[in-house]
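Possible regression after last week's pipeline update?

I re-ran a chain I had predicted before the update to compare outputs. Posting the input and the new output here so someone can diff against the archived version. Not blocking, just want to make sure nothing changed silently.
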Amino acid sequence: MTASLLRLIRLYYSLPLAGGFIVIMMYLRGGSLAGVWGKTLIAFGSLFCIICAAYCLNDICDREIDAVNKPSRVLPSGGLSIKAALIFSGCLFAAGLGAAIFCGTDFSLAAAGLSVLLVLYDTKSKSAGIIKVLLAAGLTTSLYPLAFILAEPVQTPRLTVLYIHPFWLFFSSLGYEMLKDVRDIEGDSKFSNANLKSREKNYLLAAKIIIPAASLITLIPYFAGLCREVYLASSAGAILLAFGAVGQKPSRAIRLVYCEVFLITAGSLADLLTFGV
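New output (post-update):
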């Protein structure tokens, strides 16, 4: 049962996404989390639980579609009951919101709002078309405002990066979500009357433009003198991955974009630790 629960929360997504929040906090606080370490770790735990809860709920809501697209997933394969998954998701949401209380009123309210939006996304967005992918990209990018809510920024050149990277992450996530929708079109078509073939064509074209274009935004912090050579190397690698995703099958392109985002996050942290502020 433990293995099934771990598969349900998709650690390969939830852990790096929540971990990115710590990198953002490092940039927000001028390279040092002195004085906010406790709040940062609790906020990380809160976001991790909320993200895991949302993935769990998403699989519950999509179990019929996954039976077509991903029959090996936990719920379609019978590895876990729907009741157990619902209880697990509810406990994770409760744990995440409970932890957020220790991060202050503003962060607690923001975490509650994020949770509501995630629940709405999981339960109502399948028929929302373009709004679905826009909402998903916005939810991913919400890590940046959440960091500003948690702690006061320290004025350093690195802080400016946090006004640039949200644009990169939003558009990269947007293209990523479009590719996911194209990948899942077979299952979606069995439960939707929408013109999914037309959407597939439009999403593929849009993703081919958005993902490479968004990757070029990562060059701005280096050429603006905000980051240095380690970051430049990660940016170059990310751009290669993004352009490499063009023309690939959606399933492979999705993995390349995932690697791109991970590389920029890791490179940003490595550059900060290597050169300081």
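Follow-up from reviewer: compared with the archived run. The mean pLDDT is 93. Marking as no regression found.
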